[in-house]
Amino acid sequence: MIVKGTDGVLVQGITGTQGQFWSERMKECGTRIVAGVSPGKGGREVGGVPVYSSVHDAAAEHDIAVSVLFVPPLAAKSAALEALQAGVSNVVVLTEHVPYHDIMEVLAEAEDRGARVLGPNTAGLVVPGEASVGIMPGFASNIFQPGSVGIVSRSGSLGTLMALHVVRAGQGQSAFLGIGGDPILGTTITDAVRILDRDPRTDVIVIVGEIGGSMEEDAAEHIASIDKPVIAFIAGRSAPAGKRMGHAGALVTGNRGSGRSKVEALTEAGAHVVEVPTQIGDVLRGRARVRGSDEPPRSRRDVRPAHDAEGAPAVPKTDNHPSHLGAPPAHSG
Amino acid sequence: MELLEHLGKEVLRDSGLPTPQGAVARTSQDALQAATQCGGPVVVKSQIPAGKRGKAGAIRFASSPEEARVAAEDLLGSTVSGFIVGAVLIEEQVDISRELYAAVLNDAGTKGPLVLFSTEGGMDIEEVNAVSPELILRQAVDIRQGFTVQDASQLLASAEVELDAHLRDDVAWALAKLYEVYVDVDADLVEVNPLVLTANGNVRALDCKLSLDPGARPRQQDRFARAETSMPPAGTELEQQARHEGFLFIELDGDVAVLANGAGLTMTTLDSVAHYGGRAANFLEIGGDAYTKATPALRLVLSNPRVKSLLVNFCGAFARTDVMTEGVVAAIEELRPDIPISVTIHGTGEERAIQLVEERLGLTPHDLMDDAVEEAVQAASEASR
Description:
The complex is a heterodimer of chains A (333) and B (385).
Chain A: E1 8-12, H1 17-28, E2 32-37, E3 45-46, E4 49-52, H2 55-61, E5 66-69, H3 76-85, E6 90-93, H4 100-113, E7 116-118, E8 124-127, E9 131-134, E10 146-153, H5 156-168, E11 173-178, H6 189-198, E12 204-210, H7 215-223, E13 230-235, H8 247-253, H9 259-268, E14 272-273, H10 279-285
Parallel strand pairs in A: 1-2, 1-5, 2-4, 5-6, 6-7, 10-11, 10-12, 12-13, 13-14
Antiparallel strand pairs in A: 3-4, 8-9, 8-11
Helix pairs in contact in A: 3-4, 5-10, 6-7, 7-9
Chain B: E1 2-3, H1 5-14, E2 22-25, H2 28-38, E3 42-46, E4 59-62, H3 65-75, E5 79-80, E6 83-84, E7 88-92, E8 96-107, E9 112-118, H4 125-131, E10 136-140, H5 149-158, H6 165-184, E11 187-198, E12 203-205, E13 209-212, H7 221-230, H8 237-245, E14 249-251, E15 256-260, H9 263-275, E16 282-284, H10 290-302, E17 309-316, H11 321-335, E18 341-347, H12 350-361, H13 369-384
Parallel strand pairs in B: 15-17, 17-18
Antiparallel strand pairs in B: 1-13, 2-7, 3-4, 3-7, 5-6, 8-9, 8-11, 9-10, 11-12, 11-13, 14-16
Helix pairs in contact in B: 2-3, 5-6, 10-11, 11-12
């Protein structure tokens, strides 16, 4: 999903502290917030935005292109289902720690309805100059500027850093798609790459991935068949070997999931994989050489070879943090 | 959160899926008693959350209660795959006619549950997958529909599964049960390898790997509580202390202490330290809670005696860097670490954050993350000389 400034955005959970705070920030980015939902609080206004008790009620009065959820983990399923069942075709689930079985139900429903879910556990998406949906600093002009670089990122904090380096390279973003740090996601890296490949304003695609899971390897299979140049960064390549999900988890991904496997798959598919975030600026400046270049553009410093731990799969997952570090990936920071 | 085998099997039994008769023992005397009760030859299985226990020598076969006692005495208190064995499971030996493989897990690819089944159970299933993936049946499930005995029968019928018709019904029933467990306990994974058919034609779960979704903790509180109290302690002393304080902390063997926010950025910071020739001392993620948790977090990081320099890297999206920095600056003022500190800050709230560092710590944050990393790496290397 790539939002336009004219798209009507619904905020579910708008009366909460975060919902209110980020609604204001989103508006600063040009986002057209047409309504909010808060069960039992219909009839109020928050910062000039009318509040409804249900998505159904809001949808009866407004044209809603996207709904963004500021709701607690155990309420996310019913809130997302409510949006889908009211006919909203794009749902952004920011919430972290949504039970996986809940989100799988939401995704099955979205699939049936041909709707798109971004997240969960995502910082959202930004289309500089148009709109920002979520909790990214779309209002910060040193980080987001209109341009032609499309970024897909599993992590919010790292994605922000990459966006900053794009702007420092004198360029801007056509879209930033934060897909989320959970292992089960509505929009995978491959899905996001497809969206950016179709987007006429996107000239270059940047993938900000990390160890764990096999989304980057899956995406590599797809990017081999597209024409737009792809630059990638994989976080966690130096992470020590850690816990993994057990045989069945490893079975599905095979031996994939380590930093090395991701870098190899992406490089083979023709992506330019950078070693440190700052290098993205160098690559963007010398973009003509991005694809099929034997000699990657030099960084301003003498860059040493990567210290990629041999097949290192992961840093372990903790309970309050279904980490996107480990084989059971997760949390976007 | 992974459950120990005996807790996982308890869940299976509660759902009606039979496991071999047995009991948990925490002393060799208990083991003797449990083996005596079993009556015949037994298996003594170390209860640790790690795979490949057989290869690690953590599973022993005993033909008499006395042998079981000796095996338990040997295993209890020993360290296997980094875990101290605190309990063994004593189980009757089962007369096996077929060893099968069955699992249900969350699958990222299909964005839903995936049921796996193979007649090649009992061995390394990854090996089976690598050599002959066609021997593993896979069935994606719509979680709203579930996976019934009929679905399981269809799956078994869909391929050339060499099973007698009446056994096929039993296996289909077991697969549906496994799916039921997966749903009931909010599992990430439930895997039985091997699921055996006994000489008498009965189905038994000989092993169980059950992993719970931490996100579902609020509705699975009892299971989490039991899983946690039974779990043997793992990790270094510092890591255990960190877990107690609610941090995700991993001790590494380097000398550059790292404080960053967000898992992605923290990993990237470690990678950058490696890239510039240094070695990080820890992985520690602090996020929006940094304001209140900065002092214990910093104390944790600094209590590693190898630490020679401190690198702080914040990049704010949702998390405001000024709030995080306020916490870290206060922590540094309180703990006064006697090592060089390198700072780099970007994103939401950066102006005030940088000002805080300059005014209260007398340090100038680096505009480029690379410069901060290089400085910290160099400082550590100089201090080591």
